[in-house]
Amino acid sequence: MQAEITGPTTPVLTVNLTAGESIVAESGELSWLGGDVSLETGRNTGMSQGGFLKAAKRALGGGTFFMTRYTTASSGYVAFAAKAPGEIRELQLDGSREYVVHRHGFVCCEEGVELSLHLQQKLGVGIFGGSGIFLQRLSGKGRAFVELHGQVVPVHLDKDEELRAHPGHLGLFESTVQLELTTVPGIRNKLYGGDGLFLARLRGPGEVWLQSITLAGLAHALQPYIVTETAAEGGAVAGGAALIGSLLRDR
Length: 251
Fold this sequence. Notes:
Layout: E1 2-6, E2 12-18, E3 22-26, E4 32-42, H1 51-60, E5 67-81, E6 86-94, E7 99-102, E8 106-109, E9 113-118, H2 123-128, E10 135-149, E11 152-157, E12 162-165, E13 170-174, E14 178-183, H3 187-192, E15 198-203, E16 206-211, H4 215-250
Antiparallel strand pairs: 1-2, 2-5, 3-5, 3-8, 4-5, 6-10, 7-10, 7-13, 8-10, 9-10, 11-16, 12-15, 13-16, 14-15
């Protein structure tokens, strides 16, 4: 299997497959494909057997309930495009090293890599902490590809060294890093700070990759323009209809 990542701003991952090779991705992630590629979608496709509960946990972590395996009997390719500006990064898993990625970060992987829910907090705390605290865990053996958004900032944490960040800006970190959800200090900060009630506290040792853009933040920033454009288009259509109607009446 050969993988190529193209595009500096909104990258595209193209995976070239030869006879007998396969790649596994979440349902609905495909951008395009070519050659002799077949698709197989199922609850545990490409993953170790775990039944309904395992698939449900994977979905809670931001994945999909069903997974899709792409295979070829001769040759072909499959392409996955990034959801937002940023980068697609390749991870090598050898069975001794595991990674935790943000809930929208998984792109695809080889069979042998396991995608599961990573949650080091009680369920209720995770819900009130926002979507950023529900994370995906990558384990097993093989190559995996993840998507990070915006500018990626790597941070190395020594043993017991701490870092606090907004949960949505956690892009990727090694599983040796301990994660704890903490509240923003101070009543005024909680009420008027505008940064939410929770911060993620990470404690080393391990590597952390922070992302400058979150999909939720990007959607929030674009919302006023989407509403304005939609209203303007609606007004233009209504005005055009009124003009046509007046012309017809004058005839």
